[in-house]
Amino acid sequence: MPRRFALFFLLIFPTFAQAQVNDVLMKKLPEWVALLNDQKDVKHRKAAVVALEVFGAKTTGVVEPLLLSLEKDSDPEVRRLIALCLGRMGPDATGAAEALGKALKLDKSEIVREAAARALGGRLADKAETQLIHLVAALKDTHAGTRAAAAETLKNMGETAKSALPQLIEVIEDRKADRIPRRYAIQIVSKHYEDSAATTKLFLAVYDDKEADLAVRVAAVEGLGGLGERAEGAAIPLSLGLKDKDVELRKAIATALGKLGDIKECWPAIKDALQDKDVGVRYQAIRLSGSLGRELKEPVTALIGVAEKDVNQENRLAAIQELGELGSQATDAVANLTRIATTDTRAAIREAAAAAVKKIKG
């Protein structure tokens, strides 16, 4: 069997390999360690890393040479491979988190630093707390990939990353920062920052920045939605964005508004969104109209129009459903729904309208 296919097989089925043999490709563990330490050919050293991973972190004598080579090997590709290998080994690789943190701080190769940051966020995420200082520092690494990997790892660390919130807020506020770190930073802050007023102000500033990357603005909108009723003062500024030229932002805004609590003052913008060119935006506006129909009369009238005329069947069904859920508050819709239930050409629409009429009549 060719070497590369044999190694691939052993990586895919490591348990089988360990259960059946005490060697990899007819070599014992000490032989592979010797190749990793002494072989001048980079290809052979890479193969040794793969083989050691097949033996597994629980095998005595596997982790130590990997840790040493992560620091000492002259080839950055080998060091990168080792970093990722240690990350996959996870907690069983004793000392891996510390070695990866050191590599993240000191390695001169950007691909190694990125791999180290990424490895800390996988199975080692629970062990990465001791390396928090290096991950935070990596948010300002000269390499974009490393910055992004560090931010993603911090996100994967959950509440452990709370002590890095000041630095993450700096990343969000930095208009020149990369979109990926800013997006991850927004996600972390939205979950763990307890000052909801400051968070709302911060996210609104990002959302209002027309020069910011679209993904970052969308993340800020989603963050405001995640704050829910705690995002005081966000509803009206967000609703103004329902006319933004970018459909993804409009969708995110319509979804977020549904989580903010009192949005009565946003009705004019939501009413306009019922005529949006995008089916998804209209759908979210229908759901918002249904929630407002319990307090305002005009959304009921608007939903009747959607139930009758929207070109998308799912949206018509959604509007009919919302009218039914409003019960007696949608009495004005009974005549229209009855007509739909008896004359519409689509069976699903007729059935939904009939069911809505029953709900409204109680």
CATH architecture heading of one domain:
Alpha Horseshoe
Measured by DSSP, the beta-strand proportion falls in under 5%
Give the C-alpha Rg. 28 Å
Largest sheet: none
Order of helices and strands: HHHHHHHHHHHHHHHHHHHHHH
Percent range for helical residues? Answer: 55-70%
Feature tags:
362 residues; mainly alpha; Leucine-rich Repeat Variant; 22 helices; 68% helix
Overview of this protein structure:
The chain has helices at residues 3-12, 14-20, 29-38, 42-55, 63-72, 76-89, 96-106, 110-120, 132-138, 144-156, 165-173, 179-192, 196-208, 214-227, 235-240, 247-257, 267-273, 279-292, 298-309, 313-325, 334-343, 347-361. With 362 residues, it is an all-alpha fold. It has a domain at 290-362: Alpha Horseshoe (Leucine-rich Repeat Variant). The longest helix is centred in the C-terminal third of the chain and has 15 residues, at 347-361.
Would you spell out the secondary-structure blueprint of this structure?
Blueprint (H helix, E strand, L loop, with lengths): L2 H10 L1 H7 L8 H10 L3 H14 L7 H10 L3 H14 L6 H11 L3 H11 L11 H7 L5 H13 L8 H9 L5 H14 L3 H13 L5 H14 L7 H6 L6 H11 L9 H7 L5 H14 L5 H12 L3 H13 L8 H10 L3 H15 L1
Task: Write a short abstract of this structure.
The protein is an all-alpha fold.
